[in-house]
Amino acid sequence: MSRHKKELLITNGSEIAIIGGGPAGSLFAKFAIEYARKYGIDVNVTIYTSKLFSEAGPKGCKGCVGVINERLNRKLKQHGIVLPKELIMQIIDGYYFISKGGNLYVEKKTKLDDIITVFRGNGPFCSPLNGGFDGFLLEHAKNSGAIVVQSSVRDVIFPKNKEDKITVKYDQGCHKVDLLIGAFGVRSPIIKKFKEIGYQPPETAMACLMEIDCGEKHIEEFIQNTIHIYSFGTPGIDYGIMIPKKRFLTIGIVGKNVKPRNLRDFLSSPLITKILPENPKICCQCCTQIPVTNAKNPFADRLLIIGDAGYSRYYKNGLESAFNSVQIAVKAVFESGISKEAFERDYYPLCKKMFITENIYGRMLFRLNNIIASHEVLSIAHMDLAKKYERKGHQHLDEIQWNMFTGHESYKNIFWEFFEPRLQFELAIETIKEVLERLSKKCRLT
User: Fold this and answer.
1) N or C of the chain: less Cβ packing under 10 Å?
2) Which InterPro entries match (predicted)?
């Protein structure tokens, strides 16, 4: 990357505005200020946010399951972002996979760092917490030197000439900026303004979530430090998830058009009711949109859209996606420039490799997972082989499941690991065995 003389550049006195005070916005502010100091450039960074992360319930919540994988946890620490103990709800020891074919527990084996669960906002309505992950990051950005304005952005005026600044209109006035960063969510009303200049937001799926107060004793006895993943191949539901957070349990389902009634049906299934307390106390519930494709045209002269509304990983690791895309973005801004051409040259190619190409494999993997989960014979064959591997001390199928749902490995690598010839041969044998066993039972009954 190189700063061309004729490019639009960040220089002394440049004004950078960020719409959105979530992780993408806060991290961009922090890293931009650090980069500016590195280059000896004096910049002003302002974050505009309407979220009140200090409030419990939906007002302070992003609508996210709140799992920070070990890789992201390590990256945050390497950049001086260490979560205080009171924000860490649970340290996860493993994942429990439940399907038509049976159950499989996969223990965390890597020692890179802890997998932790957090509340993005101030927790559910009945929570005694005082602060969450997003508020912590925003405070970190403030301490780095960012200005935080508690206000919605009402309008954005794009200049006809790229030499002129962008105007941001908010509740208290106007702000002319050299660079505008869109770190808003996929449901933000401001999106319609960016569509006027060719931006196309990502397509979305739905996640319906619920927070239940089970009590710490119940969590310790029935859930422990384990995330539960449910894959039954139910039409419209890609998977269900159950995440412990001290005395609370976050339960959710994800799918193209899932609705609250689907979550209620999920909660009433015997596999769920047997591990929940009687008459569980529901503290909070919501449905939110999550991106399943990447945005088109998320940059222009003096404009860059990041986070969920830009490029992110399919279904997994929204927080790590934000971190990674922010690092690429900040480097491009300070080392290349802030014109559309600069972003096309030094931002887009890296994002294409990390997100766009990667997500092709992600979509195929989750579709494949749904096909297997919806057919009992295939599901049993996979579970039987996984357990055989486990007894022999091999973790091939375990690792595929683990990496797919934790985001620990790239989707591309997982895809080709799954289609390794020997593994497919052994899966075919297990499937044939299961079919023959069923035919044999049927013959004995007739």
Assistant:
1) C
2) FAD/NAD-bd_sf, Geranylgeranyl_reductase
Q: Each residue of 26-52: b (16+ CB within 10 Å) or e? A: bbbbbbbbebbeeeebebbbbbbbbbe
CA distance 245 to 226: 10
Contact criterion met (CB below 8 Å) for 414 and 404: yes
CA Rg value for the chain: 23
Beta bridge partners of 148: 47
Quick one: pLDDT at residue 59?
Answer: 64
Interval 394-403 mean pLDDT: 80
Q: Count of CB atoms within 10 A of residue 97's CB?
A: 24
165 DSSP assignment? P
pLDDT per position as a tens digit, 163-175: 999 999 999 999 9
Distance separating the N- and C-terminal Cα atoms of the chain: 73
Beta partners for 251?
A: 210, 242
Could you give the angle at the alpha carbon of 261 between the alpha carbons of 260 and 265, nearest 5°? 120
Q: Taking all residues of the chain, what is their mean pLDDT, rounded to a whole number?
A: 90
As a whole number of angstroms, the distance between CA 241 and CA 211 comes to 12
Partnered with residue 380 across adjacent β-strands are none
If we measure between CA atoms, which residue out of 276, 317, 325 comes closest to residue 299?
A: 325
Q: Give CA–CA dist 97/76, Å, rounded.
A: 28
Q: Mean of the pLDDT values across residues 74-88?
A: 94
Residues ≥6 apart with Cβ < 8 Å to 32: 16, 43, 45, 330, 333, 334
DSSP string, 203-227: PEEEEEEEEEE--HHHIIIIITTEE
Report the SS3 class of residue 81: coil
